[in-house]
Amino acid sequence: MTEVLAIDPGFSEVRVAVLAPGGEAELHTLRPSVDPFGWFEGRYGACPSGIVIAGGYYAPCSPGTYPIDERMAEDAARLAGWHPRNRMTVRAFEYCRRHGIPGVAVDPMSSVVLPEEARFTGSTMVERRGIYYAFPERPAFVSACASLGLDPEVARGISAYLGDEVSVASHHGSRAMATGDPIACEGPFGMTGAGTLPATAFIDWLDETGRGSGSGDEIRESLKRRSGVFAYAGVTSMTELRRELARESLQATRAVRAMAYQVSKEIGRAMAALKGRAEVIVLTGPGASLDLLLSGIEERVAKWCRVACVAQDDCMRVLAREGSAALTAESLLSHSERRGPDVV
Question: Does 93 share its domain with 124?
Answer without folding.
Answer: no
